Amino acid sequence: MRKITSFFSCFLFFSGTIFAQIPAYFDINAQYKIATELLSQEKYAAASSIFYEVEKSKIIKTPQSLNNVEISNLKINSEYYRAYCALALDNEDAEQLFKRFIKNHPESPKSKQAYFQVGKYYFGQKNYAEALNWFTKVSSIDLTGKEDTEYKFKTAYSYFETKEFANAKPLFGIVKDENSTFSEQATYYYAYIAYADKEYPIALKNFEKLKNSKNYQASYPYYISAIYFLDERYDDVLAYAVPIVENTKQLNETEMLRIIAASYFAKVDYPNALAYYERFMKQDLGKTQNNQDSYQIGYTYYKLKKYNQAIEQLGKLINDKTAYSQAGLYTLGDSYLTTKNKQSSRNAFQVSSKLNFDKLIEEDALFNFAKLSYELQFHAVALDATQEYLKKYPRSKNLNEAKTLLAKVLLSTKNYRDAIDILEGIENKTPDAKEAYQKVTYYRALEFYNERAFENSIGLFLRSNNYPLDAEIFALSTYWCAEAMYEVRKYSESVSYFENFLGMSAAKKTDLYNYANYALGYAALEGESYAKAATYLARFLNGNEKDAKTVKDATLRLADAYFGAKNYGSALGYYNRVIAQGGSSEDYALFQRGIIQGLQNQPEVKIATLQSLLSKFPNSNYADDAGFEIPYTYFLIGQGEKAKTDLTLFAQKYPRSSYIPRALVTIGLVNYEQKNDQVAIDIFKRVISEYKSTDEAQQSLKLIQKIYTDMGNATDFINYANTTSIGNFSTSEQDNIMFQAANTQYLRGNWNGAVESVNAYFDKFPKAIQDKQAKFIRAESFKNLGKFAPAIIDYEYILNDWTSEYTERALISISKIYLSNKQYNEAIVHLKKLEIASEYKANYTFAINNLMVSYAGIKVPDQTLQYVDLVKNYEKSSEEDRNKAGLYAGKAYLLLADTTKARKEFEGVVKATKSVAGAEALYNVAEIQYFKKDYKTSQKTCFQLINDMPSYDYWGAKSFLLLADNYMALKDKVQAIATLKSIIDNYEGDDEILETAKKKLETFNSK
């Protein structure tokens, strides 16, 4: 009974449990179904509450439990769906619920879905990186249907947002081809990525699928337009994009305006391009406008001649280093040029020329930069730029123009020599090149003229006149060519050129017009065209532009012209005018007046005039002339005794006068007339003996012959004649033949031949008739051969006879030898003789100028200054002579330690001339400044010499040496050394410059 009771009890317990669990299972299941129904109806809050109850329901577990697994699955599912509802309700705990589910039930099939849902949660939060962390834990096979499509799209979009386009693209490609709510979006993003990957055909195909899409109607047109543009389908761009922009509101409207404008630009439709570019700029406000835009906008303005707007846009490219910048800055330069802003234009062309994207633009920009640098007077920059252009583009179509520009730059820097070389290399010269050539040859000719290299100057003046484009330069070149012709004694050519000058209308605008009448008169006078000389000298005196000194000289020369033309009345009138004015030429005018009075058969008046000359000017150069003419006039009027007495006194007073032979012959004639035959013969023999090479000796021989003949003693004459060097006629003829042979070699410049011929002449005739002329020829030939010692011997032989016509010429030549060898003491001896004895003013000029040089050479400043004064005050001194005198005065004052006076003299020379004397004077100014420790001023003066007088290489190099000393004194050792190295590398002169530079460099480096 007990056993039965226990069993029953157990049965009741077990069966109670069973019956208790059955209603619990059905209740949980029912609740679960209600929750899922609410979930399907998107009543997430209600569903979440019931899912929570299912999740928290308790189960009585027994070994016999049948539904434990099912209930457990319901609870697991409820836990998942409650997290899903939290996600749908955007509850803050949704993430945590899913994470807890995944942690608690990793083996559950819904754990993969949970990953997806967590990813969706982060996706909703736009935390795409975190969303990807969860999406990538899910596989497409874990999801089905809509969830799978949503998963693919949202995963793709997360990749898109995190810029992982390569991962996004294939997923968008799958979704876009499926019929789902995500297809349109996937198509858009797929097309966008293809566009970004430059797969334009694919992108275009997919963007075109969106043409009816309302969602993307404000965005896809931009990409279609952009693809058309990139494919250069400009007509398609305009046909498609213009109506859209005009009729719809686009998200990328600013970009579309840019594309439309650029398409019109590509089609060279600048008015429409500008209209859309201006709309683009108004909307963009500079936010996205790039350098390409700025170039195209600026170029559009430029083509429409809106240069100020073009300048504003193109100016934005100044710091860019692209092809657009190069082209834009070139256009900017042209825009500035059109608006007359050459300085800014020059800067733009310079920057453009430094970029090398487009070689043609680079070349043209450099050329324009060079031209504008020249026009704006940046001469050094223009020189460098033009030389760079010619070096980089030796075959340029602008080659001749560039060479012309280089020549003009060299002209502006006064480097005429190199400018001529450049221009002469241009075969077919443009008018501009011809004008430049006219100028550089003219200015180079002037340099030669100022250096007294007259033959060289004539050649260049003539070359300048081959291109008479500038009328004033043509006139001036003609004038100075005439002056140079005069200097080389081509008097008829000189007259012709002066006449040409006076016939030019441009000549009347110059300061030389009236002076040319004076110069022409002088040339005609020297050429013995006396009537023409008188005409032009009279015109000069009647003109306006003249100075008192020149008027006085012109008056004297006019008198000479009338005298030469035998118009003695007019000549006398002008000589009287000179006498009335007084001055240095009064003695000459008095002498000429006396001569005219004699020619007018007024011998007594002539004598009175010449006596007044001697009384007033006892030391005149014409004293011996007057001293001879007075007694000779007595002889002519029959006062033989008076003539004889006075001529005897004349010979005693002027023993070295060239009139001595004539005086002796006249004395002999008086004795002959007085029947003092033997006295006359003795006098004539003296003339033959002492002055055998003169005409008077021949005349004397004839007079002796007459006297002996008259005496009936022809044999004695013949015997006497044979004892003289002039009486053996056959010998004389041979003598003359021998001499002429030597003279011909000399005149031809065959110096060796001349020496040999003269030696043969003296071998044949040891006592040659024309010994002095022959020795002079030989001396000159030795000199030209550089054999100075034998030349000096011949010159000294000539100088033993002060009456020789070669005396002065010999003195000049021997002086030149000693001067060239810097034997100044020996030169002074002969120059002093020339100064005292010279009958020609030109020789006197030579003497005083070179005495000044010689005393300076032996460093005797007082004597140097004495001759400086003589040169400056001598009326026949040229301006260059006076400038040279100023230079030597400065040097003398330096020796006397008077730097103030020295500098004043040097600065006067610099102001007066640009010749080599001016260069040396300017160098001395710089050196004075250096020794006074005014280093910066000395530097400035050095640069002035280098820039203003580039033709004088030696003084330019000296200036660089002094610059180095200045830099060293200013403690700029780097610049000092660099300057010396520049001299060593570039100087080509054969003098002391290079050695000095090397020594200075060694000294500076040692410091």
TrEMBL record:
Keyword Iron-sulfur found: no
TPR repeat boundaries on the chain: 112-145
SMART domains: TPR (SM00028)
Signal peptide bounds: 1-20
Keyword Signal found: yes
Superkingdom, natural source: Bacteria
Keywords: Signal, TPR repeat
PROSITE patterns according to UniProt: TPR
Pfam families, per the entry: TPR_16 (PF13432), TPR_6 (PF13174)
PANTHER family in UniProt: CELL DIVISION CYCLE 16,23,27, TETRATRICOPEPTIDE REPEAT-CONTAINING PROTEIN
Protein name: Tetratricopeptide repeat protein
